[in-house]
Amino acid sequence: MLDLAVATPFAFGEALFLGLASGPACVASCGPVLVPSLLAERSGLRLNSRYLSAFLATRLLGYLLFAAVAWELGALVSLPPSARSLIFALIHVLLAGVLLRYAYAVGRACDHACAGSELVTIGGAGKHRITGAAVLGFLTGVSLCPPFVAAGVRAAELASVLAAVLFFAVFFLGTSVWFVPFAGLGWVRRNEAVTTVARMAMALIALYYLYAGLATLLRKSTYGY
Amino acid sequence: MATKVLPTREPRSVRRSLLLTLPIALWSALMFTPGFAQANRSQRIASAITIVFMVVLFFMMMRTWTTYRWRRWFFVALGLLFPVGFIHTVMVMRGTMGIPIEEMIAGRTPFCFLPIPLLILPAALTRTLVFPGSILPNGGMSGGGMAAMAAIWLAVTIVVGKGWCSYACFFGGIEEGMASVAPNAKLRKLDPRWRYGPWAVLLAMVLLSLALFEPAYCMWLCPFKAVSEYVAARSTVGLIQNGIFVVLFAALVIALPLLTKKRTQCAFFCPFGAFQSIFNKTSVFDVKIDKTRCTPCVLCQKSCPTMSLTEESIAKGETLMSCMKCGACVDACPKDAAVWHIRGTEVAVKPERARLMFLYAAWAMAIMFGGSIIAQGLATILHLFV
Amino acid sequence: MRTLMAKLGYSAAGLTVCAAVLAPFVLYGMFTKGFASLGLHVDEMYSGGPKVRTVQAAGYTIDIHRQVSPHMWQREKPFVQLDWRPVSALPAHVSELVDIDGDGQPDVRVTFDVPRDPKAPLRVNVDSLNPRYEAMRNVGKQKFSDLIVRVDDAILVRVPVAQ
User: Fold this and answer.
1) Domain range for residue B329?
2) Residues of B with Cβ-Cβ distance to C27 under 8 angstroms
């Protein structure tokens, strides 16, 4: 295992470049969740930037939580693919539920105040409201996409949990650069058409996630060939 | 806005109609006769029938000043005869409508236009085509290859924009036929928000195709696998996938068009249609409403098979971007307020000229592409008897 | 201005009709060549990747392809494709040691029967001599990343790479 003092400049430089290189894959993996939910929010660069910030912040939380737990358990490197895919499956089922709830919440939010400046919330009341962006970000953060696993394998070689967590944080920074342009979706004018399309798309994608999650949980092949 | 007195609806003279049809007759001959020397008897007869069919339909469009019902004959024939020719070819070459994995590995899966929008992002980002076909002809069912279909799509789209859905799509004719069967619609009240369905399917399928690196619509949702081919099921999931397309075909292509007299698959589901709508913004031909003549009786709105007219759009004098340029609204309007139009020109000034120019371009494309498919389907049937 | 716009509109319409006439003679060929020259390639999950080496055997060859790795969320495993061709020259039972990575050491033993009927289903067993490659037991053609199929005059075996 590398000593933290020696590892720091090289490992974190490596983490940044790994993140930058993996960014497109991360965007493609998160795209089905991010794009429709962002489009379902009200328009405005500021509001969409807040959405993106909430999404990325909880995505980072998910990354770091998983990194710390997995490093402590020593499980990340030795986690067999079948176990990884089970975790992946559970996340997918949860994502499906959240997306459906989100699509429903968007409809209700627009009923009350389409010109409001609040992000769409999906649960709780008053102070305990949870924004959909935060939940979706967290779930995509722990979803074990291939770049995440690759970074995890590398991080597990570091000497301490602090180093592993820092490695993930820098990796995350590298991937997040690719998410920044999505704030530009705030310039898209929102009307009934855009919101309805976004909600319908969320529902379709949720159905796919539900199938993918259940099929893996039932230990069936997820493809027909 | 200036309007001119529109031509009366007495039939155009036979002489003039024949004169206007002559270029189409010559074009048809040009498209079909070069292949006569190599063709067998049934192919020659099929080609001759197709030439006569297309020329007569165009003649009737000229004689009656109307478009929709004659175009519909062509479109339904295309929708019915494409599966005849295609399935026959598939059965002769493979013996099954199911695509075996060997054919996918060999790059011999025929490429239709529906996955085009799904392939763009993966191709742009990784230079990879996520379709088990071949770029150039590769024997078997690969036909002309993916490049050939992409070329046809681009050429036709440049000419007619979303008119592809009325003059080229070899799937839409089935539901257009089903929508014409019943004299009256049984389901009249349709939530207009369903019109956004194609865009939602497009967005979801584009994102999933990029994430999964496969043509997600083809794998999961395309109803027209029922009349062409599908991935042979090798597991329970494959059976589920195949069950989905059977249900979607029965619902969106057969049952709902019968009940609503609308092209429900096209209007509420087809992601390729949503993609083609973008090209209505670049197309030089469109349909407009002359607000000085419009009452509004909304007969155009009721006649539109894809709900591309709303009260708001009629008030603005235009169709929605989902307009397929089928001509139904123009033919239905009792005040000649709905008219064919060329961008930049004044609305309802010489609309017949706009219609003629559009029809020459669109019918030429229809003969080149759809006509050859009709001829192939006819030849398949005639081969049984001749 | 109105006249200019109308003239432009009619000109564009005229050009569109010309495009329709030119489509089968010029545009179609141009667009086909243009698309083919874009430098795109079919996903290697389908095509198997480019061939990197050929091994000569008794009357037939074994083509070894470059390793194919899945993209994004593709659920397939990484694999290496091996082609035995021509099928007509293969014995009824093939049991072959194959050096996949070219280091001079055999990595897998591939065993399959070659039925006379070209439509008969194939089954393959692969014994792994290098932990980098996974073993296969009585595998048919369920998934793209581990299978045996006959394509034209070759038998293709895809050996999954351990993750």
Assistant:
1) 284-349
2) 151, 154-155, 158
